[in-house]
Design brief:
heterodimer, A: alpha+beta, Phenylalanyl-tRNA Synthetase, Chain B, domain 1, Phenylalanyl-tRNA Synthetase, Chain B, domain 3, eight-stranded mixed sheet, five-stranded mixed sheet, 19 helices, elongated, B: alpha+beta, BirA Bifunctional Protein, domain 2, 2 domains, seven-stranded mixed sheet, two-stranded antiparallel ribbon, 9 strands, 41% helix
Chain lengths: 682, 337
C-alpha cells in the first residue's frame, strides 16, 4: 500500500524526515519497501501484513506513527458524527428509493445516500495530485472523492447514477445462475449464486465489494447519485474475487474485513466533500443494518509481559503505548490492565496480541538475548542420521548426490517405460505439465539427469538421490523413502603401463550396493535375475529394490548415444528393517590361514553362485572363505566356456595348519568341480 | 671340499652383497660353469661307490639351497632398487586415487544448520510431504478463507479432498506436538511445494528448515539468543541481526529476522536492494491457538518457532544467483561444493 508523507501530515505533526519515518515504520512491523520523492512529497510503499485491516488507510498508519513518535493525532474530533453536519433534513427527497438486503449475514450494513443536482466534472488539482501520487487514476470529482475516502479512512464506497437504475429499488442479493454483468473496466463476467451482487429490479448493477457495473457508472451526464457505503462478508468477497480473477482496492479491504464503525462516518465525510466539490444537495439516506458493536475488553497481567518477552516494560509506558494506539486502558488492582479494543482492531483477541503491540512499539531491539534451558537427547527418530551415514558411504564410493523435482510430467514415465497409470498421485492445480503427478519412482528423473549431464561430455555420471516416492493404492497416499542410483560412462585409471578405461556396468552398481549393505550391517542380501538385464535386490528373500541396464529404446528416447546407463532403486524403509549398525568385537584369528587357488574352465551356462555355494557347503570344517579372484573369457578359452580362479582359504582356530592337512580337502574340492560342474582344471 | 663349509661361505658372501652386480659375481662363483658347485658335481665320480649316492644327493640339495638363497637375495635387492628409483619420480605426473563423490549443496546447508541446532540440544525430525489440510493450515491457526492464506499457495491432490503437498515444514510442529509432550527441542528439514511461477528466485519445490522449542517459561529473549548463535555460526561472527515485527498466523509475537548484508557489510548493494539488510527467516512465540489445537493445557507451556528457506541461505552463503541451478544438477555446478 502506498501513502504519502504530506497526506499523513493531515493527521499528525511529523517532526522526523521521511527516511527516518520509513526506518521507524519498518522496525514497528510496517515494512517500507520503497521511498520515492515526487513533486515536493514523498511516497512510501508499505507492505501491509494480512492481519492489519486498519493499516490500509492513512488514518490507520497515522495512528501507528502517533504511537511510534509519541505525537498526538491532530484530528480525532473529525471522527465524530456531529462534525459532518446533520444529513437527514426534513426536506430531504428520497426519490422513492428502497434498500433491501436479502441476507444480513452476507451484508451486515448497507447505507445509500442520495445526492441530487450534481455537476460531475474534473477534480480540483489537490485531489487529483493526491490520488495520482498513490498511482490511482483520476476519473471525475465524484469517483475521485470515493477513492480519496477509501485511502484516507479505509472504507470502500461506490457511487451509482441514480437515474440509471431501472426502478428506484436496490437489492443486495446472491447472483442468479447465468446472470451476467459488464463491469466498469468493460469486462463481462458470468455470475452464480456464490457471488454477492448489488442489483436493481432487473439486473446486477455491481459486484458487491469488488467493482461497479458499467451501466450505472457515474459520468459527466450524471445529475443524481446513490452513494453506497456497506460492509460485506469477507469470505464471500474473497471467494468471488478469486473465482472471477478480479482484484481491486475495494476487494483488498473487504476480504480482510473493514472497521464496522467507519462505514457510516466515511459515507458522511464523502457526502460532505461531494456537496462541496460537485455542488450537489444531500437528500435522504436509506439504511439496512444489523451491526452491534461492543468494544471487547482484554485483561492483561503486566507480569505476563515480562515472562513472555524477557523484558520488563514500566506499566506507565504500557498504558501510554496502548493509548497512543487508540486503545483505552483501565488499571485494575494487582498490576492487571483492562484494555478495550476499538472497532478498527479486530485483530486483537488475546492477551498475547497485546504483548506483541507493546513489544512492537517499545522496540524488539530492546529485548535482550538469553539462552533457553534445553533438555537434550529426546531423540524421537534417527532416520535422518542413518540417511546421512548412507549418503556419506555413497560419496566415498564416488557418487554425487543430486536433488530432482518430486513433481513430474506423466509422459516422463512412459519415456522411461515405467508406466503405472492407475496408481499415480495426480495434482489438482498444476501450473504446467511438469507438475502433473507426484513421481512413483526416482528412476526417470535420474535418467533425465544422466542425459542432461552426458551432454557436457564428462568421463562418467555417477549419481544418487534420496527422496520420497508416491503411490495411490486403494486407500490414501503411500509415501516411501527411496534411494535411487544411476551410473554411466567409465572409470579411468592412469598407470605406468597406460590408461585403463573400465566401463561402468551392472557389476559396478552391484559392488556399490554390496559395500553399502556391508557397511550398514545388512546380511543375507542377494541379486536375482528377472531377465532382460533386470535384477531384483533381495534381503533375506524380501525384495527391497531393483537394478537394471537401460534398454536401447529408452536410451534413444532420452537421446543418449554411445553410453550405457545403469539404474538402481532401493526402498529405504524396507532396507532399514535389516540394519545391523551395532557392532560386537570378534577375537582376531591366532593362527595363520593357508590359501589355495583353483583355476579352471567350465561351460558358460553354469552360474557362479551355484558353484561357490556348493564349494562352501562341501569344503570341510577348515574352509573359511571361497571367493572368485579372477575370471576371463577370450582367446585362451574355448568358445562356450569361461575361465575362473577361485581362492579357498583354510584356517584352524587352535593350531597352525600344515599343507598336508589342507591337501585332502583341496583335492576333494577339485574333484567336486570336475564331477558336478564338468570343470576342467588348468 | 667340505659341503658344510661351503654353505657357511656362501651365506657370508651373500651377507656382504649390496648390489645386483655383486650378486651376479657371487652367482658365477658358485653356480657358474666353472663355479664351486660345478666343481663338486664333477668330483662325484671320484667318490667311493658306497658313499657316492649319498654324496650326490647332498650336492644336489646344496645346489637347490644356493639357488633359493640367491633368488631371495635378488628379490630383496630388486625391491630395494625399485624404492630407490622412486627418489627420481617426476612428481608432476597425475596422482592416483579413487574419486570421491559429493553431497548436494542444499543437503550440505541443511546438515550445517541441523548441526548448529543439534549442538544446542535440538533433535532432527522429518515428516511426510503429502499432508492434510488440517496440519498444513487449520492446526496452525491459518484460517482457510482469509488473505493470510495467500502467502501459502498450495498444490492440492486430485481425488483426495483434504490432502495437499505441504507448503511449509510447519505441519511437523502439529504432528510432533500431537504425539509428544514438552519439553521439545526439534528441528525439521524437508521439501516443500508452492505453485509459484519459476524464475531466478522462485521454484515450485524448495526446502525449508523449521525449528521449535516448547517448554515452561520459554521467552522471546530466548528466541533472540538462539537465533543469534545460529546466525553467527552460519554467516560468521561479524554478522549483525535485526528483528522486525511481522505477522504469521501461528506465532505471536511474530518477527522477521534480517542479517546485515554479507555482500556489502550493510553499506547497501544490489543484492540487499540498497537496504544493507537481508531477510533470512521468520519466527515468533508459538500462538496459544496452536497449543490449543494439539491439546496442550492452556497457559502451561510457551515456546518459540522459526522457519527459513534453505535455498535462500545457500544462495547467500555461496553467492549463487539463480535458484534453478540447484535442481538442474549440472555436475560442473554440484562438484564446486
Amino acid at each position: 500500500m502506498k501513502i504519502t508523507y504530506n497526506w499523513l501530515k493531515d493527521f499528525i505533526n511529523l517532526k522526523i524526515s521521511p527516511e527516518s519515518l520509513a526506518e521507524k515504520l519498518t522496525l514497528a512491523g510496517l515494512e517500507v519497501v520503497s521511498l520515492e520523492k515526487v513533486k515536493g512529497d514523498t511516497v512510501l510503499e508499505i507492505e501491509i501484513t494480512s492481519n492489519r485491516l486498519d493499516w490500509l488507510s492513512v488514518l490507520g498508519i497515522a495512528r501507528e506513527v502517533s504511537a511510534i513518535t509519541q505525537e498526538k493525532l491532530k484530528l480525532s474530533s473529525q471522527l465524530k458524527f456531529s462534525h459532518f453536519g446533520n444529513s437527514t433534513k426534513s426536506s430531504a427527497k428520497d426519490f422513492g428509493l428502497k434498500v433491501q438486503v436479502e441476507d444480513k449475514k452476507d451484508c451486515p450494513f448497507y447505507s445509500g445516500r442520495i445526492i441530487s443536482g450534481l455537476k460531475v466534472g474534473p477534480s480540483p488539482v489537490w485531489l487529483k495530485e493526491k490520488l495520482e501520487l498513490l498511482g490511482c487514476r483520476s476519473v471525475n470529482n465524484v469517483v475521485d472523492i470515493t477513492n480519496y475516502i477509501l485511502f484516507t479512512y479505509g472504507q470502500p464506497l461506490h457511487a451509482f447514477d441514480l437515474d440509471l437504475l431501472s426502478q428506484k429499488q436496490v437489492q443486495v442479493r446472491r447472483a442468479l445462475k447465468g446472470e451476467e454483468i459488464t463491469l466498469i473496466d468493460g469486462e463481462t463476467k458470468l455470475l452464480d449464486p456464490e457471488i454477492l451482487v448489488i442489483a436493481d429490479l432487473k439486473k446486477p448493477i455491481a459486484l458487491a465489494g469488488i467493482m461497479g457495473g458499467k451501466a450505472t457508472e457515474v459520468t459527466a451526464q450524471t445529475r443524481n447519485i446513490l452513494l453506497e457505503s456497506a460492509i460485506f462478508n469477507p469470505v464471500l468477497i474473497r471467494r468471488a474475487k478469486q473465482k472471477l480473477g478480479l482484484q481491486s482496492e475495494s476487494a483488498y479491504r473487504f476480504e480482510r474485513g473493514v472497521d464496522p464503525q467507519m462505514a457510516q462516518l466515511a459515507s458522511c465525510q464523502a457526502q460532505r466533500l461531494i456537496c462541496q466539490l460537485a455542488g450537489g444537495t444531500a437528500q435522504a439516506v436509506k439504511f439496512s443494518s444489523n451491526l452491534k458493536f461492543t468494544s471487547p475488553v482484554i485483561k492483561l497481567d503486566a507480569q505476563e509481559v515480562d515472562k513472555l518477552l524477557g523484558l520488563s516494560i514500566p506499566v506507565k509506558r504500557m498504558v501510554q503505548i496502548f493509548n497512543q494506539l487508540g486503545l483505552k486502558v483501565k488499571a485494575l488492582a494487582s498490576g492487571v490492565l483492562a484494555v478495550s479494543i476499538p472497532s478498527f482492531r479486530a485483530d486483537l483477541k488475546l492477551p498475547v496480541d497485546l504483548i506483541e503491540e507493546l513489544a512492537r512499539i517499545y522496540g524488539y531491539d530492546k529485548i535482550p538475548q538469553t539462552f533457553p534451558e534445553i533438555i537434550p537427547g529426546k531423540n524421537i527418530t534417527q532416520a535422518h542420521d542413518i540417511v546421512g551415514g548412507l549418503k556419506n558411504i555413497l560419496v566415498a564410493l564416488g557418487l554425487q548426490e543430486v536433488i530432482t523435482y518430486s513433481l513430474i510430467d506423466r509422459t516422463l514415465l512412459a519415456r522411461a517405460q515405467m508406466q503405472q497409470p492407475e496408481k499415480l498421485v495426480e495434482i489438482l492445480n498444476p501450473l504446467s505439465r511438469e507438475q502433473e503427478i507426484l513421481r512413483p519412482t526416482l528412476l526417470p528423473s535420474l535418467m533425465r539427469c544422466v542425459a542432461f549431464n552426458l551432454n557436457q561430455q564428462p568421463e562418467k555420471v555417477n549419481i544418487f538421490e534420496v527422496a520420497h516416492t508416491f503411490l495411490a493404492p486403494e486407500a490414501g497416499v503411500q509415501e516411501n523413502l527411496f534411494l535411487g542410483l544411476a551410473l554411466s560412462g567409465s572409470n579411468t585409471c592412469l598407470t605406468p603401463s597406460g590408461v585403463i578405461k573400465d566401463q561402468l556396468s551392472l557389476l559396478h552398481l552391484k559392488g556399490i550396493l554390496e559395500r553399502l549393505f556391508e557397511k550398514l550391517g545388512v546380511k543375507d542380501f542377494d541379486f536375482l535375475s528377472q531377465g532382460h538385464n533386470k535384477f531384483d535386490i533381495l534381503i533375506k528373500g524380501e525384495k527391497v529394490g531393483v537394478m537394471l541396464g537401460v534398454n536401447a529404446g529408452v536410451l534413444k528416447e532420452f537421446e543418449i548415444k554411445n553410453h550405457q546407463v545403469i539404474l538402481g532403486e532401493v526402498n529405504l524403509a524396507k532396507l532399514f528393517l535389516y540394519l545391523g549398525v551395532e557392532r560386537k568385537f570378534c577375537a582376531l584369528p591366532k593362527y595363520p590361514p593357508i590359501a589355495r587357488d583353483i583355476s579352471f574352465i567350465m561351460k558358460d551356462n553354469i552360474l557362479i553362485n551355484d558353484l561357490v555355494k556348493k564349494m562352501q557347503d562341501s569344503g570341510g570344517q577348515l574352509l573359511r572363505v571361497v571367493k572368485v579372484v579372477d575370471y576371463y573369457q577370450g582367446k585362451q578359452i574355448p568358445a562356450g566356456f569361461k575361465g575362473f580362479t577361485v581362492s579357498c582359504v583354510y584356517r584352524a582356530e587352535d593350531r597352525t595348519l600344515t599343507e598336508a592337512e589342507v591337501t585332502p580337502f583341496y583335492n576333494a574340492t577339485c574333484s567336486l568341480l570336475q564331477e558336478c560342474f564338468g570343470a576342467k582344471l588348468r | 671340499m667340505d659341503l658344510e663349509h661351503l654353505q657357511t661361505e656362501i651365506e657370508t658372501d651373500l651377507n656382504s652383497v649390496v648390489s645386483l652386480a655383486a650378486l651376479e659375481e657371487v652367482r658365477i662363483k658358485y653356480l657358474g660353469r666353472k663355479g664351486l658347485v660345478a666343481e663338486l658335481t664333477s668330483s662325484i665320480p671320484q667318490v667311493a661307490p658306497e658313499t657316492r649316492g649319498i654324496f650326490g644327493q647332498k650336492v644336489n640339495a646344496l645346489k637347490n639351497k644356493i639357488f633359493s638363497l640367491i633368488g631371495e637375495k635378488e628379490k630383496f635387492l630388486q625391491a630395494q632398487e625399485n624404492i630407490e628409483k622412486q627418489n627420481d619420480l617426476d612428481i608432476g605426473l597425475p596422482g592416483i586415487a579413487l574419486e570421491l563423490g559429493g553431497i548436494h549443496p542444499i543437503t550440505q546447508t541443511i546438515n550445517e544448520i541441523c548441526r548448529i541446532f543439534q549442538n544446542m540440544g535440538f533433535s532432527v525430525v522429518e515428516g511426510p510431504e503429502v499432508e492434510t489440510e488440517y496440519n498444513n493450515f487449520t492446526g496452525l491457526n491459518i484460517p482457510l478463507e482469509h488473505p493470510s492464506r495467500d502467502a501459502f499457495d498450495t498444490f492440492y491432490l486430485k481425488k483426495y479432498e483434504k490432502l495437499l503437498l505441504r507448503s511449509h515444514t510447519s505441519p511437523v510442529q502439529v504432528r510432533t506436538m500431537q504425539a509428544h509432550t514438552p519439553p521439545l527441542a526439534i528441528i525439521v528439514p524437508g521439501r516443500v511445494y508452492r505453485p509459484d511461477a519459476v524464475d531466478a528466485s522462485h521454484l515450485f519445490m524448495f526446502h525449508q528448515i523449521e525449528g521449535f522449542l516448547v517448554g515452561k517459561n520459554i521467552k522471546f529473549s530466548d528466541l533472540k539468543g538462539s537465533l543469534e548463535i545460529f546466525a553467527k555460526n552460519i554467516f560468521g561472527p561479524k554478522i549483525k541481526m535485526r528483528f522486525r515485527p511481522h505477522f504469521f498466523p501461528f506465532t505471536e509475537p511474530s518477527v522477521e529476522v534480517d542479517i546485515s548484508c554479507i555482500i556489502c557489510q550493510g553499506q547497501g548493494c544490489s543484492v540487499c536492494g540498497r537496504k544493507g539488510w537481508l531477510e533470512i527467516l521468520g519466527a515468533g512465540l508459538i500462538h496459544p491457538n496452536v497449543f490449543k489445537h494439539v491439546g496442550y493445557p492452556s497457559g502451561k507451556y510457551s515456546g518459540f518457532a522459526f522457519g527459513m528457506g534453505i535455498e535462500r541461505i545457500a544462495m547467500l552463503k555461496y553467492g549463487i544467483n539463480d535458484i534453478r541451478l540447484f535442481f538442474e544438477n549440472d555436475l560442473r555446478f554440484l562438484k564446486q561444493f
